[in-house]
Specification:
Mean pLDDT: 76
Strand content: 5-15%
Low-confidence stretches: 1-16, 18-23, 25-82, 119-178, 181-189
Distance between the termini: 88 Å
Strand order of the largest sheet: 10-9-8-7-6-11-12
CATH architecture of the largest domain: Alpha-Beta Complex
Number of strands: 12
CATH superfamily of the largest domain: Glycosyl transferase family 29
CATH topology of the largest domain: sialyltransferase cstii, chain A
Helix content: 25-40%
Number of domains: 2
Number of helices: 19
CATH class of the largest domain: Alpha Beta
């Protein structure tokens, strides 16, 4: 800051200095009789004392008057003169005191005015600020430090430039971090969609997905001629892999909780888990398609829910006739093979729903997930316990921490469980399903963070994105009140609705997908 004094301040300061010198010149004090006595001088010695006084600015008044009396003056004259001198000295001293006080007051006021004028007229020069070129610059600066991802409406897939910060260095000492951070060709893209609040997160990863299919009339061909064309993203990854776990993507996805992001999952746990699930089998839903001995060009998938509509349906053989059979949660098959079949190629669950199912449905014969050579286990992660269980299962070790600490994964997935049998849904995919297919009104309220698509809904929509033909069984239909909650119920139980799912919205979606010819939904004929 450069200070520039006002032009008039110099003259004001000069006046102040002149006043100070003048006051100093007037600084003469009276010496009354008491002060003379205080010096220990006798009256006869006062003249000599005055004469002996060193050079002064001027004689004090009482000494001057006293000096005018001749030495031989009579005593009466001296006494009379002394009285007069005392009276005159007192009067003069009082006047001089008042005069000094007056000039002091004038000097103080003058100095204050001078200082006021000085500071009032100071001019300071600030550093030059470069002009902002346009309003866009302001917008970019405002959003660059935003904690929430920036949403950019678009009608086509655009590459996103995600402004993220590097996580703390304590996250780095993981053996495979360098491999995770290498350039993988995975790009963050913004698909078509409306402008949304940041917590919706309608921005997703895209990558080249090879489905190894030659089906001429698959779902991907039909979706282009349906009402779902604008919602459907062909290049979104359904499953996670190590190449997705870069520091940039971790920063982006850690902002979303539960199944929709990596919130609550530390970077080391994420990378360590995906490092042992890093084969092509972990990245592809139908990983054994090319090794299967069949002549079909279209991959047919049956997705089996647990709805009571399947009780007495006798659809078991039809279900088992598909190439792939997806099941979820309390998938009781023993004793119900005629209605629901016996095969399971893909079992979708979260660690939480698995433990709840084992507790709730044990009386119906459910003790653990289906186990077979062709069964794959697809985690729907909503907590770090899912990553910990997957890592333990892949490495044949005990769960290292959390609610399942020291548990052996073999008791859930069998003795032959291997890393190639394990898959984990990508949080972008689950959030995409919520935002594009199952956007419930609860997302507008204070409880938006507890909502997610049901496990069965994620399973069915994942099949829609990976299979050529999809048949859905045991899902909610408009006549759901006619059936018990589950096909294995021994007596009627009405369908239970929960705050974290919107079953009616899901039911409406199944009807729309069925009407569009994208799925074949099993409905009872009345």
């Amino acid at each position: 800051m450069n200070l520039v004094p006002h032009r008039g301040c110099g003259s004001a300061a000069s006046c102040c200095l002149l006043l100070c010198h003048y006051l100093r010149a007037l600084n003469i004090s009276e010496l009354p009789e008491s002060s003379v006595k205080g010096r220990g001088l006798r009256r006869g010695e006062e003249t000599a004392a005055a004469a002996a006084e060193p050079d002064r600015t001027g004689p004090e008044p009482d000494l001057l008057i006293f000096h005018l009396l001749p030495p031989d003056a009579p005593a009466d004259a001296r006494r009379s003169s002394a009285s007069e001198r005392s009276l005159l000295a007192g009067t003069t001293g009082t006047m001089m005191t008042l005069l000094r006080k007056f000039f002091v007051a004038v000097a103080v006021v003058s100095c204050i005015l001078c200082i006021y004028v000085l500071f009032l007229n100071l001019e300071w020069t600030s550093p030059a600020v470069p002009p902002i070129r346009n309003q866009q610059d302001v917008t970019q600066r405002t959003h660059s430090s935003s904690e929430e991802p920036k949403e950019l409406p678009s009608r086509q897939n655009n590459h996103l430039k995600l402004l993220v910060s590097t996580p703390p260095t304590k996250l780095l000492p993981v053996q495979n971090v360098k491999q995770a951070n290498k350039s993988t060709g995975v790009q963050a893209a913004k698909p078509a969609g409306p402008t949304d609040p940041p917590y919706i997160g309608d921005s997703y990863m895209t990558e080249t997905v090879s489905l190894h299919t030659l089906c001429p009339d698959g779902i991907r061909a039909r979706v282009q001629n349906s009402e779902f064309r604008e919602r459907f993203l062909e290049q979104i990854p359904v499953l996670q892999s190590l190449k997705h776990a870069s520091l940039e993507q971790y920063e982006r996805l850690r902002r979303y909780p539960g199944t929709h992001g990596w919130g609550g999952v530390d970077y080391n746990t994420l990378v360590e888990t995906l490092s042992v699930l890093n084969t092509s089998a972990n990245r592809e839903m139908l990983d054994d398609w090319q090794s299967r001995s069949n002549t079909s060009r279209c991959r047919r998938c049956a997705v089996v829910g647990n709805g009571g509509i399947l009780n007495g349906s006798k659809k078991g053989k039809e279900i088992d006739g598909h190439h792939y059979i997806f099941r979820t949660n309390g998938a009781v098959t023993k004793g119900f093979e005629e209605d629901v079949g016996s095969r399971t190629t893909h079992y979708t669950f979260s660690t939480n729903t698995l433990m709840n199912s084992m507790r709730s449905y044990s009386r119906y014969g459910y003790s653990r997930p289906p186990v077979s050579k062709e069964t794959r286990y697809v985690f729907l992660p909503d907590h770090d316990r899912d990553y910990l269980l997957a890592k333990a299962a892949a490495t044949h070790t005990l769960v290292e921490r959390g609610p399942e600490k020291n548990q052996d994964p073999k008791k859930y997935f069998g003795e032959d469980v291997s890393a190639e049998k394990l898959k984990i849904y990508h949080p972008d995919f689950v959030r995409y399903l919520r935002n594009r297919f199952l956007r419930a009104n609860i997302l507008k309220g204070r409880y938006r963070n507890i909502y997610r698509p049901s496990t069965g809904a994620v399973m069915l929509l994942a099949a829609l994105h990976t299979c050529d033909q999809v048949s859905a069984y045991g899902f909610m239909t408009p006549d759901y009140t006619l059936y018990s909650d589950h096909y294995f119920d021994t007596k009627y139980h009405p369908v239970a609705f929960f705050a974290n799912h919107d079953f009616r919205l899901e039911m409406k979606l199944w009807q729309q997908l069925h009407a569009a010819g994208l799925i074949k939904l099993y409905m009872r004929q009345h």
